[in-house]
Design the sequence.
C-alpha cells in the first residue's frame, strides 16, 4: 500500500507528511508516504490526500495548473474508488462552488458550496481559529472510530462547506451555529479541521483513514 499527498503549492505539506509517517509507524504499517506533484504517482497510489491552505480560488487554480492532475484524480478516486482524504481547503475543493472572493467552480464531487462563516454570536471571531469540540452522530463514520464524544480538533478557517445533502455531513462543530467539520460519501472523506495539528485526535483520524476500506 502507498499513499500520496498532492503537492500543488497550497498546503502544510511538511507537517501533514510527518503526521502521516508517524501514524504509519505507530500503526505498525509499512506504507510509503509520498509528497508529489506527479499525476502518475496519484495513479499508482492506493490512497490519496489533498491538503490545502489559502483561498478556494487560488487552491483550485494551483491544482489545475498541474498538467493532468485533475484528470488523474478523477481516474483514481472517482472511477477507481481509491480512498481519498481532503484536508481544510482540500476538503472544500470537493464542493460544487466556492464563494470566496467571487465564484469559483470546485471539483463537484460532493454537492454543496463553500460560504463565509457567519457566527450568530458577535463575540466569536472570524477566522475560526483554535480548538473546538467535534459533534459526531450516534453511529460515526469509520474515520472517527475510537473518537470519544467531547474530543477536540484544531481549526483555522473563514469559510465552511454547506452540503446539499445532510447525509454528507460526518461531523460538525458549534461555532455560533452548526459548522461542518467533516464530510464524505462512498470513498471520499474530508475534514475542515487539520488532523496533522490535532494531536491525539488527529493521529487517530489519520490512522483510521489508513485502515479504512470503503
Sequence:
Amino acid at each position: 500500500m502507498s499513499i500520496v499527498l498532492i503537492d500543488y503549492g497550497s498546503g502544510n505539506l511538511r507537517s501533514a507528511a510527518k503526521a502521516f509517517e508517524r501514524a504509519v509507524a505507530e500503526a505498525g504499517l509499512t506504507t510509503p508516504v509520498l509528497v508529489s506533484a506527479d499525476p502518475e504517482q496519484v495513479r499508482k497510489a492506493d490512497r490519496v490526500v489533498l491538503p490545502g491552505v489559502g483561498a478556494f480560488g487560488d487552491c483550485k487554480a494551483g491544482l489545475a495548473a498541474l498538467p493532468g492532475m485533475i484528470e488523474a484524480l478523477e481516474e483514481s478516486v472517482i472511477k477507481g474508488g481509491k480512498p481519498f482524504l481532503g484536508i481544510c481547503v482540500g476538503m472544500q475543493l470537493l464542493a460544487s462552488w466556492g464563494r470566496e472572493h467571487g465564484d469559483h467552480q470546485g471539483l463537484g464531487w460532493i454537492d454543496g458550496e463553500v460560504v463565509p462563516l457567519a457566527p450568530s454570536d458577535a463575540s466569536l471571531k472570524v477566522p475560526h481559529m483554535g480548538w473546538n469540540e467535534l459533534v459526531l452522530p450516534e453511529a460515526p463514520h469509520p474515520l472517527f472510530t475510537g473518537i470519544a464524544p467531547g474530543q477536540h480538533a484544531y481549526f483555522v478557517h473563514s469559510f465552511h462547506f454547506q452540503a446539499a445533502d445532510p447525509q454528507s455531513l460526518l461531523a460538525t462543530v458549534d461555532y455560533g451555529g452548526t459548522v461542518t467539520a467533516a464530510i464524505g460519501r462512498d470513498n471520499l472523506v474530508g475534514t475542515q479541521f487539520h488532523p496533522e495539528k490535532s494531536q491525539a485526535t488527529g493521529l487517530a483520524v489519520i490512522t483510521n483513514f489508513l485502515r479504512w476500506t470503503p
Summary: The domain at 3-211 is CATH 3.40.50.880 (Rossmann fold). The radius of gyration is 16 Å.
